[in-house]
C-alpha cells in the first residue's frame, strides 16, 4: 500500500467534518436567520382564511429610485397589511419617529433603520400602484429573534408571530369587496418582479 492510500484511508473518517462545519456556518449566518424568520411568518400567514386574505411574500416593486422589497403583503377585506420581518437578538431600542433603532447584544451595539419608516416607503409605492387611500393600509413589524424591547413600542411592532396574528385579527370592519381584492392582487402580481402567492 503506497503512502497516498495510507493518508487517504487515515483521513477518510474525518470527511464528514467539512459538511458539518459548512452547515453550522450557514445556520449561523445572518442570511439564514433572516430567511428562517421570513419562513416562520410565511407559514403562519398561510393559516389566515384564504377567502378573506390573499397573502403575497417577497414582493419587489419598482420605485422612482429603483425597487422596494416587501417581506409579506396581506390583501384583505379589512385593509392591506404590510409586514416587515426582523430576526435579531438582544435588547431593542427605538420609537415610532426615530429614524435609527439600536440593537444591544453582549456589550456590543449596532444600529438599523426604523422598520416602520421602511414600511412607509412600501405603503407609498402600493398607494401609487393601486390608487388606494393611505388609511386602508396597516403597517406591521414582527421581530422573530430572541429579543427584548427596552423602549415602549407601538401596537404594530411585536416580538412574536402570535402577536402579529393577533394584531392582524383586530381589524374586522370590511372595507373592500372581493372583486377589489382580486384586482389588487392581480396588479401586484403583474407589477412585482417575483411575487409568491401563499394561498
UniProtKB/TrEMBL annotation:
Every copy of the NERD domain together lies at 33-149
Give the organism's phylogenetic lineage: Bacteria, Pseudomonadati, Pseudomonadota, Gammaproteobacteria, Vibrionales
Transmembrane intervals: 6-27
Key words of the record: Membrane, Transmembrane, Transmembrane helix
Q: Which Pfam families match?
A: NERD
Protein name per its UniProtKB record: NERD domain-containing protein
Xref: InterPro entries: NERD (IPR011528)
On whether Transmembrane is a keyword of this UniProt record, the answer is yes
Amino acid at each position: 500500500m503506497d503512502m497516498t492510500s495510507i493518508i487517504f484511508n487515515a483521513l477518510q473518517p474525518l470527511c464528514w467534518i467539512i459538511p458539518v462545519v459548512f452547515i453550522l456556518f450557514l445556520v449561523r449566518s445572518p442570511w439564514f436567520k433572516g430567511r428562517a424568520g421570513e419562513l416562520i411568518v410565511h407559514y403562519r400567514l398561510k393559516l389566515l382564511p384564504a377567502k378573506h386574505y390573499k397573502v403575497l411574500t417577497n414582493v419587489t416593486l419598482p420605485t422612482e429610485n429603483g425597487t422596494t422589497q416587501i417581506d409579506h403583503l396581506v390583501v384583505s377585506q379589512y385593509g392591506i397589511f404590510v409586514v416587515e420581518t426582523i430576526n435579531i437578538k438582544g435588547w431593542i431600542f427605538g420609537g415610532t419617529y426615530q429614524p435609527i433603532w439600536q440593537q444591544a447584544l453582549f456589550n456590543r451595539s449596532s444600529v438599523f433603520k426604523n422598520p416602520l419608516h421602511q414600511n412607509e416607503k412600501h405603503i407609498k409605492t402600493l398607494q401609487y400602484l393601486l390608487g388606494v387611500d393611505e388609511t386602508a393600509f396597516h403597517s406591521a413589524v414582527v421581530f422573530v429573534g430572541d429579543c427584548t424591547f427596552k423602549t415602549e413600542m407601538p401596537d404594530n411592532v411585536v416580538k412574536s408571530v402570535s402577536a402579529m396574528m393577533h394584531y392582524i385579527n383586530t381589524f374586522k370592519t370590511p372595507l373592500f369587496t372581493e372583486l377589489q381584492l382580486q384586482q389588487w392582487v392581480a396588479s401586484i402580481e403583474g407589477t412585482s418582479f417575483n411575487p409568491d402567492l401563499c394561498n
